[in-house]
Amino acid sequence: MKADPKGVLTGVHYLDGDHACAEGALAAGCRFFAGYPITPSTEVAERFVARAPFVGGIFIQMEDELGSMAALCGASWGGKKAMTVTSGPGFSLMMENIGLAAMMETPCVVVNVQRGGPSTGLPTMVGQQDMMQARWGSHGDYEIIALSPASPQEAFDYTIKCFNLSEKYRVPVLFMMDECVGHMTEKVVIPKAEEIEIYPRRLTKKPPEKYWPYEFGEDLVPDMIVAGDGYRIHSTGLTHDERGYPVMSPVVQNKLVKRLCEKIKKNADDIIELEEDQTDDAEIIVMAYGITSRVALPAVFKARKKGIKVGYIKMITIWPFPEKRVRELAKKVKAFVMPEINLGQVVLEVERCAAGQAKTYHVPHAGGWVHDPEDIYHVIEEAAK
Amino acid sequence: MNQANANVPEHPMEKLLRMERIPHIWCPTCGIGTVLSCFIAALEKFDYPLNKVAVVSGIGCTGRVAGYIKLDSFHSTHGRAIPFATGLKLANPELKVVVFSGDGDLAAIGGNHLIHAARRNMDLTVICVNNFIYAMTGGQTAPTTPLTANSSTAPYGNSEPPFNLPLLVGSCGAVYVARWTALHIRRLTKSIGEALNKKGFSFIEVIAPCATLYARRNRLGTGLDLMKFYHDNSEIKHGAPLEELDIGFQQKIIVGKFIDRERPTFLDNWNNWLSQKLGDKFVPYGVAPQQVPLRKAG
Lengths: 385, 298
Hints:
- In chain A, 39% of the residues lie in helices and 22% in strands.
- Chain A is of the alpha/beta class.
- In chain A, helix 3 (65-77) packs parallel to helix 4.
- Chain B is 33% helix and 16% strand.
- In chain B, a hairpin with a 5-residue loop joins strand 5 and strand 6.
């Protein structure tokens, strides 16, 4: 279906990434926001609450991030598209209920505008240090979807994609921004509502007496209901069967948890989005995401000028990791180079998938600033030797 | 129902119970089932479509209520029943949302949400079953365990003072506050009915026996003995000052309705204030535009 024009601020704007993200959420049909202020993400909340009264939305500033994430789960079952935003410390507090959303298969979007950590770290300065927390932060086995934008325009575009993926796969989607993208101001083009594709909630067509809340079809994703529609369902964070009832058994656990993971893995090709440049005959692949994908470009151009065959991959989707593509490339290329504003996180996945067939080089940065492109260039040069 | 049971009459509350999930997990003489029965009895008299009533629980013995009641029901995480319910209510304001959970879930790990939901006057009914102990995990000290009472984490007696829950939520702004015991079946049922019909944050504390852990550890006898204790030692005192509602170990328990007042809810305030500030451009949330009373806010 197409976007509801009420929430779409069609036109050419000059926006920072945080504001663009809020506009993306409104364009996607998000009408519920629960959050707790934290730098450098607060501007998303501020933009949302300033706009919500004019589009029939609701905003609640919760008492903490634990409550924000729980409220998101409730709101989603109440039939609204729901989002929250935070940064590292708040992201940590949200983890338990992100697990609840994964377990109850509750569509919602969590934005993390990353700053330097650990702990309170660098509240106003950039980091990309929550990438593994996004993947593994809540306890137990589950698969998650995480996207990362590299510009305010992408913050707008991919927030919409986050909502669409969340509805399609009934999973919390994590939007892993970073302080630079959140606070940089650039041109953002917001298209007309009829040009924005929206994935609607997958509501069941079955009558209540024939409906089980966790019965699934071929794509492994169950159809949902809205609380109050007469289905009288039960949903729990406990291990449950297809009726939604708790069952404490390894057999049911095995079936449920495997499906929660498989529904993402099986549909990875549909979920994953990468931007590739000159990867066909490359010897070295530079892979990066978020602000670092832009910082890496001067290094890539310089290396090409020097005659090094460098391919470039900008990752939009971080989780599920583009395993298939990295495995394919590992057979052909000499090495992968991955700069990240952390001391080695997503690079571990590159290394795992390269499986010794290609070398993997990390360009670390502890946070607070972006890389010097020269540092990235030197690693490319070393990898090409 | 299988063939052997074909002649057994229906359970009188079958319409609102998930009978396929019975027997429940609660111990013999536990008070939670009694409170659930009172809730169902109140729902049967509640003049509201039951498809529009939802129950949210947290974790613990009382948290299991959500799994037995045949309504839209959500068993959330430990302490987060109130924020989950807040999201549910705000997303779909025509729902009547009831939080059914225990004292540890609501007042300890979820304490922050309890006070803020009362402050905002979030339109929720909270039924808090207080058994003085963490029962699901084996009888540890709760923020409601009376001073000197024994628990598995206070083997020599509890040295911390407990919460006075009616005082806590009353001072934060709840519009309806009552306390009963699991013995006060009729009064509790009536009180739940009043709370359901109340707009805003209503809170009912129900003192309930935990024979397996609280009574056994404290050598108080069986669940029946605890009920007898409630019979002999609870005093109905409507409108009692909240400061006088502390509960000491094996001391008198004051019950009754303590607060019944009106305050605009979170959504009333959102709609009233913004329609005043923004005029016609404002799209009221969760109500038809003509229903928004245009009174002066503040």
